[in-house]
Amino acid sequence: MPVAVALILPVQAAPLADSQIPQQIILWYRNYDSPAIQALLDLALTKTPEYGSYTLKRSPEMNQGRALRELANNNSRAVQVANVAASPEREDDLLAVTIPIDGGLLGYRVCVTTRDMLPRFKGITRLADVRERHIRFGQGRHWPDTRILEANGLDVVTHPGFETLFDMLEGGRFECFARGVSEVYYDLALRRDENLVIEPNLLFTYTMPNYFFVGRQDIGLAVRIQLGLERAIADGSFAEFMNTYYTQPIEALNLSGRHVFHLGNPWLPGGMQGVGKDVLQNTKVRVHLGEEPGARPSPND
Question: At the top level of its lineage, which domain of life is listed (predicted)?
Fold first, then answer.
C-alpha cells in the first residue's frame, strides 16, 4: 500500500538547520533539465530551512525505467529524486510525495505529429474515429499511460528511449506522440525541429497524477519535499509557480476549444487524495474540461 510519508517521519529525523554541510540532492536528469520541475523542487526545499542547506545535482543520463530501478535499489549515488507519473506499482516500490506537481496537467494530452501527417486527424470528433483511422500513439515502454491508452482500445507503439520516440514519429512508426500540456512546448523547444507540430483540435484526458518519488529509505527527503509543497500551497507560491510555468501553455493550446476524449484509468493510484486531489480538481475547473474522468475505460462511442 502507498505510504502517507508526511505522517511517518520521526521527530529526530529532521536535519539541524545550522548544519555546515549542504545536503546534496540528485535529481533525475530529465527533471533537472526541465525549468519547471527543477524550480518546483527548489521551491519546496527553500520552504523548509529547518532541514538545512542543500544543493541540487543533475543525475547521469538514464531512461525512466532505469532511474526508477536505481531509486528502488536506494542507489543515492545515481539518483535520489524523480518526478514521474504515478502508478500503484511505483507507489508500492518507492515513496511518493502525493501532490501532483503540475496540478494534474500531465494527464491532459495533445498529439505531437508531423506536418505531413496532420491530414490524418482532420474531421475526428469521436474516439471511435481515432480507432477507425488507425491512429497509433507513441509512448515510453515504462510509462503508466501506455497501458491506459491500450485499455481504452488505442494502438500504442513503445520504446524505452524518450529521444528515440521522436525519431520514430518522424519515421512514420506512429502518428501521435501524446505529450502532456505542461511539457509539450518544452519538448519541442529542445527538439528544434520545424517538421514537428502540435495537432490543433484533439485533447485526450485521463486522471494520472505526477509525483516526486524517492527511495523508500529516504524518508527524511520525502517529508521535506512534501512539507515544502504544502507550505507553498498554503502561502500561494504554488499557485504562482503554476501561473508562471503553465498558464501560457494552457492558453496557447486552446484546450477549451478542442474535442475532448476522457479516457479511463483502471489503475488510478490510491495516493490521489487530500491536498493533491484539491489541486488537481482546481486545475480542471480552471481549464473548463468538465467532470473528472472515471476509472473505467471509455466506451467505443
Answer: Bacteria
Secondary structure class of 85 (helix, strand, coil): strand
* Phi and psi torsions of 250, nearest 5°: -60, -45
Asked whether the beta carbons of 260 and 289 are under 8 A apart, the reply is yes
DSSP-derived pairing of the beta strands 108-114 and 23-27: unpaired
Q: Residue 91 and residue 246: Cα distance in Å, rounded? A: 26
Alpha helices in 196-299 (DSSP H): 219-235, 237-252, 274-286
Pairing of strands 176-180, 108-114: antiparallel
For the whole model, what pTM was predicted?
Answer: 0.80
Domain-wise residue ranges, the chain: 5-101+210-247, 105-208+254-286
Rounded Cα gap, residues 238 and 44, in angstroms: 9
Q: Which of 3.40.190.10, 2.60.40.10, 3.40.50.2300, 3.10.180.10 is the CATH number of 105-208+254-286?
A: 3.40.190.10
Q: Strand pairing partners for 179?
A: 110
In angstroms, how far is the first alpha carbon of the chain from the final one?
35
Helix (H) or strand (E) holding 145: helix 144-151
CATH architecture of 5-101+210-247: 3-Layer(aba) Sandwich (3.40)
* Pairwise CA distance, residues 30 & 90, whole Å: 18
- Which grid coordinates are listed for 169? 514519429
